């Protein structure tokens, strides 16, 4: 049984994975988004790319069987399982400006961007290095006219997505801080790491 | 009458704009895509972000009236006119690997990525700095199941998109090199710059 790591509400974590390791990201209570960013542990300038992933996978909806690709056109992770089946790879992590501009909230508000950089900065990652995240459990609906709508996640308590690292990685992971993305309440995110069997 | 600059087939250009300048990107023959990337001329670490733009504009289809946003949540350009009305902001610029992986072409092939970096490197921009481009005239259809399909551009000879710079910018622009994006043939791209009226 692998240890369950807990990310508290509106916070984040960062850690390394070795090639072959399996990361399981769990929504323990349901309806909670987790933003994930990836960096090549051996060269942090290589990182997850939504544009490359949507291009190579030829799909907006990235789930079981798809790969997450880097800006250098390399496979970073393979999605092994996805018990929920709805994730987003369109929208940037919520940031302080998200709440100022979209929510008209001029006061301090926690954000995925802040939680990513707080946890990733010890690895040498700077704020401008944070790319568009793979937003696990995030339910962004799109319509023929292009309109986007952020809806409540369809994930139930215990749903999970598991990923296998295709290279040595630095991973940033959050329990998302945005009201609209999480049906109005904030819950934790759990994760576990299974070492590769060599 | 502003000077018309010509980007030859399967090539690119890079130039500076001052805040307020108007850039007009023209498809002179029709059915030709132009990839555009933007950097803050005063701090190149700030650059165009698909994730921030799709988030703030709440739409996959970015056209007249929309803004192009940076990774720092600042407005970089406003789209003033769009006579065609179909652009893409999902897919990364075609790169050498695009042709190896998606087209199974192991030989040399020109690419937008190469043409962007060749023209932007004199400004101090490195390969890993190239973000997902705003793909002018690119026609990527998306379906309810998420499937993406690159179709012939709907642009006719003389169609154009005009943009007003919201900050001082370094711009990279191409005449796209990918067969599928341009209905099988390669054409030039034209552009003009109107200085801001101060």
Mean of residue pLDDT values of chain A: 96
The number of distinct β-strands of chain A equals 13
Measured as a percent range, the helix fraction of chain A is: 10-25%
Separation, N- and C-terminal Cα atoms of chain A: 18 Å
Question: How many structural domains are formed by the residues of chain A?
Answer: 1
Outline the structure in words:
Two copies of one chain form a homodimer. Chain A has 198 residues and is mainly beta. The first copy, chain A, has one domain (5-194). Chain A contains three helices and 13 strands. Chain A has helices at residues 50-57, 96-101, 112-120; strands spanning 5-7, 12-17, 22-27, 34-40, 43-47, 67-69, 75-82, 134-136, 139-142, 148-151, 159-165, 169-174, 189-194. In chain A, strands 1-13-3-11-7-6 form a six-stranded antiparallel β-sheet. The longest helix of chain A is centred in the middle third of the chain and has 9 residues, at 112-120. The radius of gyration of chain A is 16 Å and the shape is globular. The two termini of chain A are 18 Å apart. The mean pLDDT of chain A is 96.
Q: What's the structural blueprint in terms of helices and strands?
A:
2 copies of one chain form a homodimer.
Chain A: E1 5-7, E2 12-17, E3 22-27, E4 34-40, E5 43-47, H1 50-57, E6 67-69, E7 75-82, H2 96-101, H3 112-120, E8 134-136, E9 139-142, E10 148-151, E11 159-165, E12 169-174, E13 189-194
Antiparallel strand pairs in A: 1-13, 2-12, 3-11, 3-13, 4-5, 4-8, 4-12, 6-7, 7-11, 9-10
Protein name (chains A, B): DUF1989 domain-containing protein
Organism (chains A, B): Mesonia maritima
